[in-house]
Design goal:
By secondary structure, this protein is an alpha/beta fold. Helix content is about 45%, strand content about 15%.
């Protein structure tokens, strides 16, 4: 290595101190849900969009709105409905009778953090408009292309138990979400604390969140994440994991071949490496370990593996396949 690892570790440790401040501030209003909070911060550091899946009432929307407050970012919540139009999302051209010209009226997509609530309730035209914003960080209104402010992050929610009136998200769009997070119920102690905090009719008891970091600080932190060292062996380990989803028979996982319809795309390898670096950064460490990769692999891969009808008939989930791959692929 052509650099001093101890110096890098110390720099990362100092630069990552704001992560603890964000978590501490969010804890004023969010009880538990530490994996969700960690994943949201990770997505923020990686410039990666996140798909949140969980039943109603698990503080998904509250957490996203609170995160925007503590990083001093602009925030918009968009409720996706079957009658939503692309113009409702990105904006449109309005004719000005006084000047005789068309003027651009920007839509709610022009914010740092977008909460796309129940994203799977809107049809394909809306999804395609959102897709340009997610991939290119720009939107086209009329003949003009507008760049979106950085950081720009789409945090989308969907309800796993209600399918009436929903549209399956296109696979190309799902693949553009860096992470898919499954939100679980709180435990008994957490639920007790939630009940004590929230079982009142007034709003005066709500904690006031203070910004602990700016969007410029986030952009600078992203540059620091790029400096986290990842060894060639870790790179090879990541590629081995991803290729095991495409060619399981070459990894002594012959029984998975008939269960996987389509393996993970190259975006999986890119996002797995980037998320691992961000994970190391969040822990104040200047280098990536295999444990970092295993910590993020479920959220990175769970939505990128398409299963066969045989797998669905046997009630095999993508997480079951990922777990088998983790246990089988040799760790460097």
């Amino acid at each position: 290595m052509s650099f001093n690892l101890s110096e890098l570790n110390e720099r990362i440790r100092q630069e990552s101190q704001f992560v603890a401040n964000i978590k501490s501030e969010l804890a004023k209003v969010i009880v538990g849900q530490k994996p969700m909070v960690d994943s949201l911060i990770l997505g923020l550091l990686c410039n990666g969009h996140i798909l949140l899946e969980g039943v109603p009432g698990l503080a998904k929307s509250l957490t996203v709105a609170s995160l925007a407050k503590v990083i001093k970012a602009s925030f918009n919540r968009i409720q996706f409905t079957p009658d939503l139009l692309p113009a409702d999302l990105i904006g449109t051209l309005i004719y000005n009778q006084k000047t005789g010209t068309f003027e651009t009226k920007k839509g709610p997509i022009f914010s740092n953090i977008i909460l796309a609530d129940e994203i799977n309730r809107s049809p394909a035209k809306v999804q395609s408009a959102l897709l340009e914003a997610m991939q290119e960080h720009q939107v086209t209104i009329g003949d003009t292309t507008h760049k979106l402010d950085e950081p720009f992050l789409v945090l989308a929610t969907q309800n796993p138990i209600e399918h009436e009136g929903t549209y399956p998200l296109p696979e190309a769009q799902v693949d553009r979400f860096m992470l898919k997070i499954i939100i679980n119920y709180p435990n008994r102690n957490e639920e007790m604390e939630i009940m004590k905090r929230m079982a009142n009719t007034g709003s005066d008891s709500k904690a006031i969140l203070q910004p602990v970091i700016s969007t410029d600080d986030i952009k600078r932190a992203r540059q620091v994440v790029n400096d986290v060292y990842i060894d060639e062996k870790i790179h090879r380990y990541i590629v081995d994991l991803v290729f095991a989803t495409r060619e399981p028979e070459k990894t002594n996982l012959d029984d998975l071949k008939d269960l996987i319809d389509t393996g993970a795309s190259p975006r999986a390898s890119i996002n797995l490496a980037l998320a691992s670096k961000a994970k190391a950064f969040m822990q104040g460490r200047g280098f990536v370990t295999p444990e970092d990769v295993r910590d993020v692999i479920m959220d990175v891969l769970r939505h990128r593996i398409l299963l066969t009808f045989e797998a669905e008939a046997e009630e095999v989930k993508s997480t079951d396949i990922i777990q088998r791959i983790i246990e089988t692929v040799e760790v460097p």
